[in-house]
Amino acid sequence: MNNISIDGFSKTGNWYKGNLHCHSTNSDGKLSPQEVVDLFKNNGYSFLCFSDHDIYTDYRNEFDCEDFIILPGLEASVNLFDESGKYRLKVHHIHGILGTSDMEANAKNKFEHLQRRNVKIYYGDWNGKKAAQELCDEMRSYGMITTYNHPIWSRVSYNEFCDIEGIWALEIFNYNTVNESNTGYDEVYWDEMLRHNKKMLAFASDDNHNEGIFDDACGGYIVVKSDSLNREEIIKNMLKGNYYSSSGVSIEDWGIKDGVAYVKCDKVYRIDFIVGNCVNDGVSIMSKTLNNELTYGEYKLKGHEKYIRVKCSDIYGKTAWSNPIYLGENND
Q1: For residue 180, what pLDDT is reported?
Q2: 13-247 belongs to which homologous superfamily?
Q3: pLDDT computed for residue 239 by the predictor
């Protein structure tokens, strides 16, 4: 592994910023679709997925233009209430984002714009793992790529979602639930999956509802590297992990060169190389003063690592997360 070199991002392409988790007046958001689009365009975003609750929307004809595109989709749910039906105890929220043209062409089913789906509700108890898998399978039957969203906020147990087959990415930062109740950080579940050899990408998002109670917009996003801004290329690069997630920090480059992992980023306070799978693997590099001084970090691989990812954070807590690079027998 001393001579291994792997690029974290493609060599060519442009960077495109987007939000994958967003609500409008089509469900429980307070802004109209037009107002939402205006908000994100004015803040430098290049793409947006309207993920309204259990209603599929496709606003490509209305909003696609040269410098901004829509990813059609929805946030699908299944709920567990107590026996009285008064209290919601747990929920699975799984995104369906319309996949590549091949996925769409080969799909068993097809959503229409503004089509609602039937929401399954359990009372008293459920088989959480089975319910999650069924929901994921349903979304995939419509040609969707799927994400698992905010598990801590959803009050689910790890074993109720960790082994779902067909999930593309785990939502590890949800700006809305961070500010609502500090239940939007799910990074620990990501590493638990990776440590158990489950290949999983991750993403940060807003989950904005724009209610005005607290800030929940333009605080969590992904930045995709792509040769062009069109839905097909953005989706393909998302599936490949050719992007990073962020709550306000940029990553310029990262990867492995001659057995040394490296990252180039905005000025930050600390850089963490998170590594699997032995005790004491990985390293944290911190500024010598309480200032954002670091723009580069590296970690020399020992040779037994299963994966490595990097996290860059400033003194205000704003963070960028890479996707993992798989190593050894995991690198297939």
Answers
A1: 98
A2: Metal-dependent hydrolases (3.20.20.140)
A3: 99
